[in-house]
Write a structure and sequence with these properties.
The protein is an alpha/beta fold and 247 residues long. 36% of the residues lie in helices and 23% in strands.
């Protein structure tokens, strides 16, 4: 059993099961929600216990949830039954996936690519791009190479036995998308300011933390600073589209 699968199997009972309250977390769901509709066929890569897959299925979408952890998927299946929706669970992990290409209108991958070395991320993005039908949308979550928090998270995950966290420069992100014949439709930088909340003692000031992070109804200072200094963002949510046939 891989280190990654063992880790997330252990974390499955404590892993978040609902959309987060901070602006950065709620934006993940907002980007999905903008495309939620009956008949949509979506792939949630790194689905965990289904905090995005289950509510998306509630909109009448067909959702395939992929995760390396069988314990996560077991919780997802239990929760989807409780919610009265059907989510197709697939145990698989990037950079390759046990999914058919060109089947999906939407594919999204949050908090997963960051843990892969660069060569595996390149292969994984190629795999994800290949899932899309013409006109389909891909949402990626990529770490920033110039973020100070990268050193914190790299050390954190290496202690757990992972290779680390692997980031990109913004120009490289755009090239990664273009190399897979996709068109960037939006880049949403996050964490240029909130990364400093990792400093010792910073969380002793909850009002400041709320002001920086914002929430689903209010933009925080972090979003403004990240837009102003996107190259220093902790991560980017990148939206890209596969051109329609004939375009």
């Amino acid at each position: 059993m891989s280190i990654e699968r063992s880790h997330f199997d252990r974390e499955s009972s404590a892993y978040p099961e609902t959309v987060g309250e901070t602006r950065a977390q709620s934006l993940k769901w907002q980007l999905i929600l903008e495309r939620a509709a009956p008949g949509l066929v979506a792939a949630d890569i790194g689905a965990a216990s289904g905090r995005h897959a289950i509510p998306l299925a509630g909109f009448g979408a067909t959702v395939v949830a992929v995760d390396i952890s069988t314990e996560m998927l077991a919780r997802l299946k239990k929760r989807s039954l409780e919610a009265g929706v059907n989510v197709h669970a697939v145990a698989s992990g990037l950079p390759e996936l046990a999914l058919h290409p060109e089947r999906f209108d939407l594919a999204y991958c949050y908090s997963t690519l960051l843990l892969l070395p660069h060569d595996q991320q390149i292969a994984a993005i190629r795999t994800l791009a290949g899932l899309l039908r013409p006109g389909g949308t891909l949402i990626l979550d990529l770490a920033g190479a110039r973020s100070l928090s990268l050193f914190y998270w790299r050390r954190y995950y290496r202690k757990l036995g992972f290779p680390g966290i692997f980031g990109w420069r913004l120009s490289q992100v755009k090239n990664l998308v273009a190399e897979n014949n996709l068109i960037v439709t939006g880049i949403y930088p996050q964490g240029a300011l909130s990364q400093f909340l990792l400093l010792p003692g910073a969380t002793r000031f909850p009002q400041l933390e709320r002001l920086i992070r914002g929430n689903r109804d209010r933009h925080g200072l972090d979003e403004a600073v990240s837009k102003w200094l996107p190259a220093l963002a902790e991560r980017w949510y990148v939206m890209a589209q596969r051109p329609s046939r004939g375009s």
